[in-house]
Inverse folding.
């Protein structure tokens, strides 16, 4: 399987509910590594740019309101087949459709308040990672660590 990177966001609902660590534990348990991470509060401009593909959809304005309502944790995940692996552990977007045990089954409370975001393709993963992190802020796991 190909080594890939994907972008993950722990959304304001999950940050507010003290779930950062539990979500990161689920990510690490499926073999993905967190290779970049920051807590930040998105501006309306940033959230609008990030979710530009959804502009005009009925949920767009409330999505921007929600994503700017509190801090988020933005992280780059790396591992075998990272995009699909993360989407699988994250679970389906729509509330009630996520497989039991997934992050969203465990922690989402509605379609909108769904705890986490993940890139949906290789192309979008690259765009979304570049949106938040310059390459030099991403940990290269092949670097050796000091003895
Ligand atoms: P996310 O993976 O972050 O991508 C877009 C977000 O829009 C999605 O998760 C949901 O949180 C939110 N959203 C709210 N309502 C809908 C909807 N009806 N269809 C798709 N996404 C929705």
């Amino acid at each position: 399987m190909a080594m890939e990177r994907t972008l993950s966001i722990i959304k304001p609902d999950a940050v507010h509910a003290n779930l950062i660590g539990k979500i990161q534990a689920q990510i690490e348990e499926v073999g993905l590594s967190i290779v970049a991470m920051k807590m930040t509060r998105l501006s309306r401009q940033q959230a609008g740019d990030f979710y530009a593909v959804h502009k005009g959809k009925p949920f767009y304005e409330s999505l921007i309101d929600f994503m700017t309502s509190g801090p988020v944790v933005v992280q780059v995940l790396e591992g075998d087949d990272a995009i699909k692996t993360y989407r699988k552990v994250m679970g389906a977007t729509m509330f009630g459709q996520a497989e039991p045990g997934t992050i969203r089954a465990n922690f989402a409370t509605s379609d909108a308040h769904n705890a986490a975001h993940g890139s949906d393709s290789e192309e979008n993963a690259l765009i979304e990672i570049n949106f938040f992190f310059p390459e030099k802020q991403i940990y290269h796991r092949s670097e050796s660590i000091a003895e």
In short: The chain has one domain: 3-41+71-137. The chain has a mean pLDDT of 97.
